[in-house]
Amino acid sequence: MKHTEPITEETVRQQIDALLGEVVGVDAPIIIGVLRYGAHLPHLWREARTRPPIRVILSHMIEYLPAEVFEAGKFLVLDDTVFRGHQMKKCRQRLLDRGVAADRIRTAAVVVHEDADDVDDFPKARKSVLNNREYIQWKNRLCSLVKKGLRPTDRDHPLYFFKVSGISSGRLLAFLERYGRVTCQGQRCDGAPFVFSININSSLLTEPGSSPLPSFDEVGISLGNLCKLRVYWSDQGGVLKVTFVPIVFPEINIAQFVRASAFERLVGVPLNDLDYLRQNPEAWAGYIFFLASRSLAACLMLRFMTDFRRDILGAGGSISLEDPTGEDYPVEYVFPASYTRFYKRVFDSISSLLSTSEGADMSALSFPWPCAFDEGEVEDPRVQWPHVDWNVRVLSAVVDDTDPAEFDGRRWIQNTRSTSSASFSSLDKKIDNGLAVSICLDDLLDAGLLRAKDGKVSDAELGTYARVFLPGGEFNALQVSRLTESYRAEGETTGPADIEEPDLWVGDEC
Amino acid sequence: MSAESQVYSEQELTAILSPRRLFKTIANCIWDYSFLPRASGDKLLVSKPGDLIWTPHRFGALGLIKPSRAYNCNSVRVSYGSFYYPQDILHRGTYQKYGIRTERYTADGMRFVFPEFISYEAVTKSGIERIDQTLWPELVRSYARLNSKTVNCLASCRNAAAAIHSLWVELVFFFDSLRTVCRQLEDMPIALEAPESRRRLDAEVKRAYDAGREYEGKIELWRFRDEAVTTFRSRGEASQLDEYIPVLDSALNPPVSLPQMLSLAKDIKNVNCIVGALLRRVGLGPCEAGIVELEECCDGLGLGITFKDVAELYYGPDAREIAGLCLNLSFRLKAHCEEMLGVTILAPPEHYSEFFEKMYPI
User: Is B245 part of any domain?
Assistant: First the structure.
């Protein structure tokens, strides 16, 4: 069916409603949400709350789940759009690799690009085929629709939901300024919630009491200079519904980490709970990194909440932690038991922190947080050098000299063999401005030009893992290819010293 | 200066005489002198105060020079197409012959230096009327020793017409400077990187910010007016003019009312704070407002800009986007002011042309 209707947020929503109504109604499959938007679609389905809960597996979790999850039932690989079909095929293959029979896997997307391979098989009759212009327009509408919701799409980081009363948005922002450099995240969108990041000096985590580990170096952990808290909130009748997403950028030498018996101390889960993954050493090491890095992020969250709670109470407000299952409903995420235990431990710690003798320790000595940047450093690199396109610079540093797209003789397609990726620390070294890297990563991830995943950055015994950033998939890989090629062609943008004085002032200054 | 008397001693007076104070003192004298014949029922038929005029300026009302004679324009600067800089004029022969000169005593500070006396011979030759020789110095002396606030208040806001003109000129400069800086920043954010352009942008932002603040300042002065009149009348120095000065009436009804002007104060203050704080984020201007203050400003503003719009730019300072929002905000506020007042707000030179043609109150 060729798409002819004007593309608006409402028509996009109608298409999602129609697709989900049909796919979830058949066999009640477990949905595999492909990357960010695929996993987000069930939350956009307007009828979801009138239906039984929808079970969703986040695509990055496929290898970490025990085999029993895949032994029975139907699976639906769900994505918002299909450009060429590589991601869909890849995700399907991962399910096949986990032993799911082909006849138990179906695929579905809301719209497909006219050049897409025929990879989505359900429901074909409803499939909307879009040309390039329509495809971009549709993506933009979906993006704006998603942004208007409070739920962030970065679900490969644990989310912590709070209710804050008696505090205005401005006061909240003023409090956040105390903990690090607050920056605005991503592209702005009318009607969307407040979305900000606090860029925090990660040396905070090495302070005594911030984490259960005595020393990071000894257990094979190297921290990036910055860590961050993403904060999303909306004002709902004087009550702020706030979601915190703590993110830390460690590089972890898995063998050293395991040898030092640091896993249980940091994560709070016995390492042998992960034994079911031993047959696949890569998945085992990857999952250890996943839990360890999210535990470090949880340490940040707890450390932050200890002081932030005081701020809120001191200003006459109150803060409470919200149950994530209630926030996720009607979606029920399928996680490994070890993840659920880890999250519950952190959840209970925060709950207990928030509920213990409220306000009693208001007079406790409060140490200042380490400054994320040197005194006198410029507020924001975008202010100091507005002519520099920092985003393209960071993109270019990610792809380095490899091209994320290739020409197949007829058209440009994603280069699936491209291995270009970069960790936060390596980007920080290349760009030499941690704040710029952090801000740009937020922007680029938000725009879909980059994606992030946990990846191996060295081939040492069991590998060293880090959060790595790589060009966006399919359609976005082409955009990244074009942008970085232009950047390389033009050479490095001129530095401040090369800027000529513009002749702006024609009139006499009075 | 003692707090009780609110007047300066002879010694203090010689130490504080700056051009700004001189112009404000003259502004008061011009106003009174222009109205003396009328206020005295033609008992004191003084002359017109020569080339001196009272004018609302972005520094508050000043006594400026709008010479009837033509000077060589290559050597005399003209401000806003109407006024000559007094320091330029004082260098011309007319004034030099009396020994009046200017002196630069700091990098940006200028002081007028007057002769200890002007000889009887020179005064006689000047052709100044006897009545003016007697009353003008008395008038100047009446204002010269008052404190700055009182002099400012009586110069800018001694009656509704003067207050309206003083507020009006701040609006004109506020919008003009804001438009200038935002357009340039929106077109060429790269200007921030070149030191000279940055300095100029910074100066222009400061001008806009000061004008916005001065709007509030003028309203405060208007509210202080009665107290200022009381202070003037109790200054402890008798003059034969006391029966008539300060002259508080005006010969002109301006086209807008003072309550209308006063009702705009809150919106102007809020916009000035928002714009000032955002431009400060790209390193321009002096505004130090924090995010909580910005939220209060946005809550009290009904111009279609939300706190979220402002906060996003406050923490994501993109010069071009900030300039765009500030420009948008200033256009909306200007349209709102014009609608409320029922008149068009012009750019400075046009403003002064129209002012002299239609609204010059003296």
Answer: yes
Tokens found for residue A246:
């703590």
How many angstroms separate the CA atoms of B260 and B262, rounded?
A: 5
Separation CA B193–CA B197 (nearest Å): 8
Q: A293: which 2 tokens?
A: 């890095």
Say if the Cβ atoms of A504 and B311 lie within 8 Å. Answer: no
The CATH classification of domain A9-147, taken from the options 2.40.50.140, 3.40.50.2300, 3.40.50.2020, 2.40.110.10: 3.40.50.2020
> How does strand A412-414 pair with strand A405-407?
antiparallel
CATH match for A381-489 among 1.10.3720.10, 3.40.50.2300, 1.10.10.10, 1.10.8.60: 1.10.10.10
Closest CA to A87 of A350, A413, A357: A413
Count of pairs with CB atoms under 8 A, one residue in A, one in B:
93
Q: Do B319 and A499 touch (CB under 8 A)?
A: no
Q: Cβ separation of A177 and B291 shorter than 8 Å?
A: yes
- In whole angstroms, give the CA distance from residue B45 to residue B318: 62
The verdict on B73 touching A (C-beta cutoff 8 Å) is no
Each as own residue / partner, the long-range contacts of residues B229-235 (CB below 8 Å, 24 or more positions apart, any chain) are: B229/B154, B229/B158, B231/B6, B231/B146, B231/B147, B231/B150, B232/B142, B232/B143, B232/B146, B232/B150, B232/B154, B235/B5, B235/B6, B235/B7, B235/B142, B235/B145, B235/B146
Query: Is residue B105's pLDDT more than 70?
Result: no
Of the pLDDT bands very low, low, confident and very high (cuts 50, 70, 90), residue B1 is very low
- How far apart are alpha carbons A126 and A359 in whole angstroms? 57
β-bridge mates for residue A107, sequence order: A77
Q: Are A140 and A187 in contact (CB under 8 A)?
A: no
Q: Which residue of B has its CA nearest to A436?
A: B316
Shared domain for B168 and B275, answered yes or no, is yes
* Helix (H) or strand (E) run with residue A99 in it: none
Query: d(Cα B298, Cα B292) in Å, to the nearest integer?
Result: 10
ipTM of the complex: 0.85
Q: Is the pLDDT of residue B90 over 80?
A: no
For residues A341 and A268, the answer to whether their CB atoms sit within 8 Å is: yes
Q: Which of B308, B322, B328 to mutate to test the interface with A (most CBs of A within 10 A)?
A: B308
pLDDT for position A383: 72
Asked whether residue B129 falls in the same domain as residue B163, the answer is no
Quick check: B317 and A383 CB within 8 A? yes
Does the distance separating the beta carbons of A501 and B194 come in below 8 Å? Answer: yes
